[in-house]
Structures are given as C-alpha cells and as structure tokens.
Protein 1
Amino acid sequence: MSRTPLRPSGLLIAVLIVTALGSCDGGCDRGTLDRNGGGGMGMIVGAGGAAGAQGAAGNSGANSGSAGGGARGGAGGLRCSDSTCTSEGYLSGTLSIDADCVINDAACSECADDVDPDQLTLRCDDAPVGANPSTVKIAATDQEIGLLWVTPGTPPNLAATLTFARLSPDLQVLSSTPIEGEELLNTVGASKDFGVAPSPSGWIVVGWGARDVFVHAIDASGVDRGRMSAGAWGGSLIEGPLLVPRPDGLPLVAWVSAVSPVAPAAMHVAAITNDGPFVTSGTELTREDWRRPHGLAFAGDAFFAAIVAGSAANPGQIRVQRIETDGTPTIVADALAKVNATSVAPVACGDSLCLVYHAPFPNTNGESGSNFLQQKIDGTGAGVGNIGILSYDSAHNYGWAIPLPLGRDIVTVLGGSTDDDLGVVRLSASLSPDLPVTLDTTITRWPRQAHYVPAIAARGPDLLVAWGPAPKDRIRIARITFPPPR
C-alpha cells in the first residue's frame, strides 16, 4: 500500500468490538477503587456525579442512577446492560456483569484486535515475570529482549527493588538478575527514571539511589559483572538517569539535575568505555534550562541532544548539541530557524539526523494548525528535503512523541492524548512520497492512559512497546510488525 507521507488523508483507527451484555437495566456497580481519585466510582448511569465523599446521583442518562459510593459519581450515559469494554475505556475484549450488576473488566484488553494488516500486525502479551512494577524499561537486540523494572517497597522500611530479565523473541525468560547493593529510595519509580540498553558484551543498566547515579554491566548470560558510579546526582534530580543506545557500541548515560527546585536545570552526560567497563564523570551540556522539552539520540557517528531552547526572536527555537562517543560536548547549532516548536526529539535517519517536533503547520484544508512533524537537518541545523506530517492535532491531540529508527524507516509512538489513545506512525527516513507509510494507527487505549509514557524499543522488523502496572497490575508487551516495502 503506497501513500504519500506529506498529505495523509485521514487517520486509520482500529475497529472496536461492541457487545451488549447483561440484564441489569439500572446502574452498574464497578466496585473497584479509582487509583487516581481515591474511593469507588459510584454507579455508571446518567450524568457524572459531583466530587465529594459520596458521589451525587446521576440523573440525565437512560435511567436514573443511585448515589455513588466514592470520590466521584457515575461516569454517565449508559444503562448497565449497555456497558462494554469500549465504554469502559478499552479497545477490545468481552466485559462481564454478575447477578449483582457488578462490572468485571478483567477480560477487557487495552490492545486493538482488528487493525488493518496493510498497516501493521499487533500482538499483546503479559510479560512472563509476574511483576507489579512502578517503572518499566525495555531494550532489544536481534536475538533478545532486555526488560528492566522497579518493584516499589512498602514505606517506611522495605526498599524498592530493581530487576533485569533477558527474554527470547517469543517472551520466554532466559535469565533474571536482581540488581543488588543499591540504596533505592522509596520514591524511586514515582517520577524519576532508569534505563537499559544493549552493549557489545551484554547489557547496561543505569539507575539512581541515595548515593549516586549508578551503572551495572550485565554480561551476555545475565550475570551482573559489577557496579560503576557516574557521580552524585546532587541537588534536585529532575529527570533520569537514562541510557541513549548506540548501535553496535556502548550507550551514553544522561540525567538532568538542578541545585534547587527553582534554579535552571543542567543536562549531564557520561560515556561508558570498554576498559573495565568504566564510566566517565558527568559533563554538563550547554547552559540551557533542561526542564524545557528535549530529547537525545545517536545518529551517524555521534550522540545528539535537542532542546526547545527559545530565543528573543523565536520562543520555540530548537537547539541541537553534538556529543562525541567519549562524552565530550562539541558543536551547538540552532535548527529549523523558522519553526516555533513546543517539543522536539532527535532520531537517526540513515547516517543523518532528523527531528520530530510539534509545531504549527498548514493542514490538508490549507488552514494553520499544530501537528507533530518530521524533517531531516544538515550539519548547520538547516532543514533538508520534505516535511513529514505524523499527526494532526485536530484529529488526535497528542501530548508527546517518541521516534526511533526501524530499518530504513522511522517509527514514532504518540501518546498523551485526551482520548487516551496510543498511536504509531511509520515514515521512510528519506520522506519519499513513493515509499509506503503507516498512517496514525491506534494500538492501545485504557482509562487514563494519557498519564502514562510506555517504554519502546526496536528488534529486527518489530517495534516493542512495554507498560505497567496500569491497567492490569502487571507488565504488558506489544509486538508490532510492519509490512515490508513493496
């Protein structure tokens, strides 16, 4: 299927399963706690009840609902017998309702089950590790999948734990390695990050704790070969640490910290070398405020950091800094001078660097609107060639985009939308209109998915997406395969 990436005519949306269930004509009792609001959700019928200790009765739907039993009232609009997995915020599956009109969504799935095979194929499975994590990260080689997760402790005495597992391509456990000797804080996983990436001799794991930013080298059989320190994170840790993968090489360690909650945040990078292995001391990049939207990637022969730095003439000015493989920051250049961006992420496109960014751009009707866009840049930061449109805000109001190279293409995962959809777009790295593309395709949806950023990785022709604990208190992995070029 060949379509131009420059003017996609619309969005490809997965077909949803809708099945009428049950014989309850009044309101359903969901019976579970609302993790984000606290307390039960009340009856699902009529208009949503007012917030409070007890939800107000719904009164404008098909039937009047009784008072809600929790932090808010009914979700509104459906009789119990009309409830489905899709009305509960999922994409597929079969919902059940017991004799007491209690909804059971255990068989509902956050994954689409009817995507267009000309666009992609999708398979979602539980990870075979039995974890209920607070943080999940994923990486891959052609032969294996690396999975890293944090299991929260119970305050005030039990600390959080960090575990790495090697999985086969069909998700069988090859080895499981607890990362020991670290003083992980009880806040670990709540707002900070961890990372995993392949290395020539196995895997690299990075994290943070009470002492410092730490790095562990895991060999090809899953044995932890030792700990290295990238230095104290100091002050206030804003983001990270994370790993920027490098094909057939060692990844870069990066984290953002500030001396105080109101001071400008600094980006620190550290290289991992083969002799030891050893990690260099963290080096600061340009004195931007790295709380602003930014991203990192390896492209060609170096790492790159991109940030919406802003300038006097353009509040959305993108700035790109080159980082050598030994961790030394070098060239800084403003990119795409006329683009007023609100977010940016660099990504390799062949031997060059592309930027995925959110900015105004004319839509198909010639009207100005904001969209996620993709363009190649040269060594001076100037745009090269076509501009690819990944999504239109008028159709999907996505909040973030994560791109990565996949063969000769760039695949971008988009999320943070008000409708809780997670979408995938594939464009050719060259942005040639003659090459096949995958238009914005919804792959997952669950209630409040917009508040969660999944982990992604590429393995051969497959895109891997991992998330947890929401919505099912376990780690889930989606494997997405795109059709080969025709």
Protein 2
Amino acid sequence: MPCKFTSAQVRVALVCLILALPAVRLVSPTPAAAQAQDYPSRTVKVIIPFTAGGAPDVLFRLVAQALSEKWGHGVIIENRAGGNTIPGTLAASKSAPDGYTLLFTADGTFVLNPLLYSSLPYSLSDLVPVVLVGTTPHILAVSKSVPANTVQEFVGLAKSKPNTLTYGTTGPGSIQRLAMEYFSRIAGIQLVHVPYRGANETTTAIVAGEIDSTINGASNILPHMPTGAVKALAISTKERSPLAPDLPTMQEAGVPGYSSQGAFGLLAPAGVPDAIRAKIYADVVDVLKRPDIKQAAEARSFQLFAGNADDFQRLIAEETSKWRDVIRDAQIKIE
C-alpha cells in the first residue's frame, strides 16, 4: 500500500535534504586532493645541479631508491652540474608545477647565489621548499705533503708565505669558498683560490697534491683519512661530531666563532598543489625515518633532519644573515 505524506511533511523533508547537501560536498574529495591521492602516477624526475658523487647526489640517491619502492614508480636523477647550480635550478624552476619535476640542491642555491649575483635568471619565489632533508659538517683538510698537522701550524705556515698556499673549492660562489674565506679572515691569512667543477674533482685534487688545502664536506674527506691520503685538521661544527670524535672543532683549534655546514633540501616549482607538496613531504619523511636509511646516511657523514617548509625557511634566513656578512667583508661578487 503506497505511503502518503502531507504537504508539510514533504516541505520538511526537502529542507533537510537541502541542508545536508553542503555536508556531502565537504566530505567529497576536491580535485587537488584526489590528484594527491593518485600521486605519483608516473616517473618523478629530480634535478640535482651537482656532479654525480657530490654530497647532494650521494645523499639523495639513498632517498630516491626508497621513494621508488614506496611509490611504485621510478625516481630518476638528472645531474645538471656547473654554473654555480644556476642552469639546473633554472630548469627546475621553469618546469610544470605538477610534482613530477623537483629540485634537490644545497645551500649554495637557496642561500649563497641570491647574495652573490646581482641578477639571476630565476627568483627564489619561483620555487617552494618541500623538505629540509639533512646537513653535513665541513672539514678543513690539507694535502699530505703540507707540513702542518694542526690548524695553528697551517695558519703559521700560511702567514709565513702569504698568497702562496692554495685551496680548492667547487666554484667561485660555492659554500666551500665562503667557508675558507670565513676561516682565512678570522685567522688573518691569505690563500690562493683554485675552483673545480665539483666536490669529487676537488677531493681528487687534494689527494693528488694538486692543491694544498680545502674545506669540504665530511663525506668527501672522511673516506681518505684512514689511508693518510689527506690530513684532516678540524671539523666545522660547534661541537665535536660522532663521525670523527677525535677531530677538534675549528673553535677548539683556535678559530673563535667559526662554524659552517652544508644543508640539503628538496624544492618544487612554485604553484605545485599544496596537497601534492604535502604528500611528497610526508613520504620523504617516512623514508628518512627508516633505520636503514638513517644508518646509510650517517655512514656517509650526513645528519638527517626531515624539516618542514617552515624549518627550511628559517634555515635560509639564518644562513643568509651569516653569509651576507662574510661576502661583504671578503668583497665577493659574481657577475
């Protein structure tokens, strides 16, 4: 027998249905959220504007392999070295903001270049920070042929023959150069700068005795310490590192106020959907929390950080303030 409703009951039912519709819409996934749920649906490319085997490359290859396994899609690395990371960074900044082209780079890109160059073909606003992956300390090292076994012996040697001893870096505007300029100004010495294309080339040069000294990433120096191929004099962190507990800090070695480190982060082209950016961050953090990844990273002299976008921006602000003073005092400018 069919049910009969009064007109009043029908009106009440319609009002209830209308009021319920917004709630239905709220729980329905937005297009961006749905897109993030499906991300990635194909291979993700990560541009690294450094040579293969350099610190950023070594670190992100650990992450890339684990991300590939997690996502079920490949994560390919494209090394675009040279030009003080500018060409590789430009390519990433001009890519489609869909999460399928990312940039993994070091602080030279997001701290130093904006300070060193009067103009760049891109703006930092063309990129957004996704995750601050980790850091690595720097080590002051000298060639085994250099007659110095401590920082103060090296300073004394440099003062006895100014503008004679050489130091190698990964380029005129690199963190390695600024770290050495910082040290030189505090110590009151003058050294001769010899730029190379990448950290591997710089390390090869000091092992071969082509240069006298370098301040380079721990991952480049520590493997050569046991063989005596180079002599490590001090580590750049404010406190001694478990990576080399017998190595004094620069401050302990008589360089007051000195500290430096390399920082590495993942960025995306500006305009990438927030939901995709958040998913990349969450998935990378999951990878960084894995004990095997942490162990592998520490074995290669990295300290994993897993900082969010706010942490990333805070580091940029702090490091920019510090290195701006060093660049100004050393009168370094690159056109």
Protein 3
Amino acid sequence: MKYLKLFIIIPFFASNLAFGQEKIPMLSGNVKVSVQNGTIECDLQLTELELPKDYSIRLNKGLNILNMEVKNPDSFLVGFNRDFTDSIQSDETVSYYIPSNTKGEKFYPNNIRFRYVGKFPVVNDTIESKMQKEDWRGNVAFVKSNLRVDGLQSAWYPTIYDPINELQYDQLKYDITIDCNDCETMYLNGAIPTKGKSTNFKSEVAREPLLFIGKYNIQESETAYLLNSNFTNVELKEIDELNNQIFDYLTNYTNIKYQDKIVWIDGGVTAKKYGFAFFSYPAITVVGDPPHDLHTSLESYNSNSLTTIAHEISHYYFGNLKRSNSYLESLIDEGFAQFLAYKYVNQKKDSNFIRNEIIQAIEWFEDPNFEFKAMLDFHKSENTNDRETYAYDYQTAILFSIEKEIGEEKMKNWIRLLLQGEEPISNKDFFKTTLKKAIKNDNIYNDIIDKYLTGNLTVENMKKLWTE
C-alpha cells in the first residue's frame, strides 16, 4: 500500500471489551522500570474478576513469573500451568491457567496477584548492527532512553482471554504506581502525561494501559498532548487546525462529537526502515524515523500522511465507541476507519483520491495469491491469507462500491445506524438490517448483498463498477 503502514489491531486476537460486559476488571499494584537496563518488575493484582469459561491468562514471553496468589479470604499461592489450547495467542505471549483441585478443570478466583520480572534489549544507537531486525506494535521497546509498550498485543500486564467469544480483556480500570529512577516523564494511557520518577495513575474508565515512560518532552496544545516532540508554537497551531478539521468532518459525518484530547506519541523505532502507527484511545503512537516520525507525519500534509492521521482519529468511532468483540470485529473496524479517512482526504486534498486508490487496489485483489472470502462469508482468521490487504484495501473498496451504488446520503445513514446500535458490527444480522434500513429498497438491498457482500464475484463486480 502507498500510505504509511498501520498495525492497529493485530491479526491473532480481538481487541477491546465485549458489548454487554457487566464487570470491568481492576488492575492495581506497582511497576518498577529501568529504561537504561531494559528491566521491568511487576507486582500487580487483577480484582473484580468474572473469569469466563475455559479462560486463559496471557503474559509476555519475556516476563518470568515468580508466583500467583489468590485471596479467599486469606492469601495463598496457587499453581499455574501453560495453556496450550490457546492457539490464536499472539507471538509475544504465553498463556496460563490456574488448575482446580479437580483433575482437568480450571480454578475460577475473583482476584489474582501476579509477581514477575523481565529484561529486554535496549536500543540506543542508530547503527543497524546495534538495532533490532524488526519493530512492531507488540514490541516491548526500550529505545533511546524511553520504554514504549502497548497493552493489546504486548501483554506487559496479565490479560484474560475468553476463547468462546474470542475476547481479550485488554481494557481495564487501573490504580498503578510506576517507579523509574532513570525516567523524567511518564504516561499511562487514559491519564494525563506527567513529569517525575514515581507516579500513581488511576482510571475508573476502562482503557488499554499503553505505557510510555522515559526521558522525553511533553507539549500541550488546544487539541492534543504531544509526547517526545519538539514542535514550534506555529506548528502546534497548525496541528490544532488539522485536528479540528478532522474532528469537525467526522462529527458532521457521524453525527457524534469527537471527545477528549488526542495524545500523540513519537514512540521511537528499534529497527531501520520501519514506519507504522497504532491507536489506543486516546493515544495515537507513531513509530519510525523520518519521514515516518511524528513530526514529519503531522507536518507533511500529503495525501498519504493525512490518510494515516485521519484513519487513526477515525478509530475513535470504529474501535472505541464501537468496541470489538471478535477477530472479525477488529478487522471490520479497519475497513470503516479507512473509509472515513479516504472520504476526508478526497474532500480536503485530492478529489480523485478515492477512485485512484480503489482502481489500484483492485489490481492487488486480482492477484491469484490473494485469498479471501466476502465480508458476510468471513467467519475466522483463516478466511484470508493477507489480513492487511483485506482490512485496509478490500473492505474499503467494498464500502465505496456500496456507496457508489446507493449514494452518499444513504451510506452516511447506514454508518450512523451502525454506530448508534448496541450490537457489534460483526453481528451479521445487525450489519444487514441496518444496511436494509438505510437503503429502503428491497431490490437494491438484495443486489448489494449479492454483488459485494457474499459469493466469489465481488472483485469482478467492483472492477466492472469502477472501470467500465
């Protein structure tokens, strides 16, 4: 793809909390970090737990567990086993469970305390031989006197996985104290960035606890916090203008006002020639050397960088307000976020942008090596062999093809209905009934379903629509 690669939701498991989850776990305790030595030492407790049937506990492979402890009512240590049935865990994690006294069954406590430590590579040089081969969202990245670590993919804190509903509980309430003697600034996602070597962070609102601490500058503008940045006052005003333009566009399109300040993070990079971004509301982390660093991305104003920025901000709607509850849901989020980003860029920058991108993408879909199923026939990760092309390009082209057939107003109405409903978008009945309600014509609706959302001729039908 031409735009900056986005690894927002990984292909191995779903993100965020399920619709209708009644109880959000609380993560509390202490974390000690050294950004110079690449060490993490954690004493963390999960409480208010309602463990799902056949749960797994995921934790980063680089973290070594000292013990697990349960309080009921007195505290006692519990044994734990590897869970080899968790077949779709990410490459970064190991899965565990606590066995019960009954052979073959699991123990379901309402609280678990975890003590564990880890040591990771530290990258403070730009010489390739002293850097990593790759960088990615789930990397526990000690880089240039900072630690960048997400929650969704890295599992630096223990996360519960529900295999029946394909749900990972990566968004939590928290009350965590971070200690780092060689740090100057700290940010835990959902809190306010702060200066200091020790900070207690609290949130009663569920957030993905992305952690970014170290020695970096904090800037604040009208619309954003900017971490590890060095913008001039003039540039900050330009960033506010850009953010407000995107906020206004998305608010008018969705009829839902964008809330909260963005937290833009320049996350550094541990490998050469890498550039990507990911969203952990309200934080957007940009990873890469120029021209893929935060400063260049926000100041270049070309179609590619604007697409990246608008895409990430669009995840406020598809990915935050409309939270994922399955692998499929996280996949669909990317298509709708890219659709909104393309709409913005096409209006503000290049009136031929959408058409040019889709025509080019259709050539990729025709590659015999690209395997996929139509959106309503898609049920599991094995239904495509190229998640990135499917998520960012195929789905986006399908959505614009539907818009081209039914018109912009009906497409806008469909997206509003999707955002207003309580059901997940991956609920195919909800997906179809909202589309049918927006179209208000059974014949056209059935035609859209047959041509673009089911069967094996979706690419042929798109090509005919856009090139003939």
Protein 4
Amino acid sequence: MNASNDFTLFPQLPQELRLKIWNSTIEPRTVRIEWSPYLSQCTTPDNPIILRVSHESREEGLRTYRPAFATTPGSKPVVYANFSLDTVDFDWVIPNSQLSHFTHGELNTALKDVKSLTIRDVFLQLELVESWRSLLAEFSELEVLIVSNCLAEPDRPLISNPEAMEEDIRTSIFMAGEDENSDAMPKLVCLKSGYECSTHWWFKQCNEWCPRRMGRGSGESEKPNWLSIFSSVSNAAMGYSIETNI
C-alpha cells in the first residue's frame, strides 16, 4: 500500500501559520486574458491558486486579488487580478477580431487599470490601423510594456554617429512628451533579447532618458499618449540602425 502524499494535518495547524502559507503563494504573475464568445466576457486560465483551494484560502486571497474586466456594470467577472503585481497578456492573435469588445464600456475602463502589459511585437508596428492604435492608447497608466514574439535576432546594431542619435532620440522623447510630461512613457522590455535586440535596442536609451513615472496622474494637465512617444522615438532610432550594417 502506497503512502499518501497528502498533508492531512494542514487544517490542524494554527490559523496564523495557515494564512502565512496561503500568502506565500502570492507572487507576480502573467495573466492571460481571453475573450469567450460563449460567455460574452473575458476569461483566463491563470486565476490565482489561492482562490481555488478552500473557503479559507479564497477569503485570504480576496484581500489581494479583485474581480477584473467586467463586460457590463451588472456582469460578474471571472477574472481576478492585482494590477500592482500582475502583468496582463491579452490573447489577441488577430487584434481586430476582438477589438470591438474593448472600445467602450466597462472593458475599456478596465484597460486604464493595467500597469504592466505584454504585447506581441507585430501589434506595435506603425502600419497598424488607427482604431487599434487608439485602443492601445487606452492603457494610460502603463508602467511596464513587455514586447513578446519578437522575430529580430539578438544582434545590436552599430551606430555610426552615436552623438547625433542620442540628440535625436532625446529630442523625440521630449517633443512627443511635451517636455516634463514624458513620464507617460512606460518602461520598455524586449522579452526575447533585451537591449541586444536588433529592433528594440533603443529601449535602453528610452528607459534611461524618459523621466521615471513618479507621481503619475497627479498633475492637472493631461498626460500625452505614450504611444505617440513610442512611435516618435522608434522612428528616430530605427533611422540610425537602417544607415548601419546590422
């Protein structure tokens, strides 16, 4: 007879210790958000384990995680997240196929709560339709933007005139960001190759030269669209990499 691997004495542990064990499962996660045509709402396969074990664990987990991405004011969300901890990854294989669900109402409002976002590289290309770019701009409180599925090789280009490049990128940042308001720009991360990416090498300069996002949302003036800064800096940076042998 095989001994069971279940720890059957767990309910007999002191409550303080049990709660510490439950809380040890809380850590930063990537939460994949999918659209369910059947339910007509967002779903996820990544709800926290702490919410699914027992009544006690769920009660403790709800101190950290909240329902998110409601479809309508009266709907009951099935996604739970903590936007201070979690990175959101929308399962937008073809973005325009789900675009209409996020352009208005409760889902559109929820985008403003996201602080860390993973997005496929192709969705940031400058040729994207205006409706998609407008949707990306709704992530107005982003602090970190992680670019995934990058097809570029990890081969940082050589820049023939780094001084001119530096000046052009700085100018692009502050012109697009309206001087002191360039704190709207999130920190940029290439998931595949980091700063050595032949396409996203300029993330390093942008992260260094954009003011850190301290005190965001506290000013009375409207913050600029982070996507406009991204586009301006990308154009300036890639102009230099095109002139060199990558």
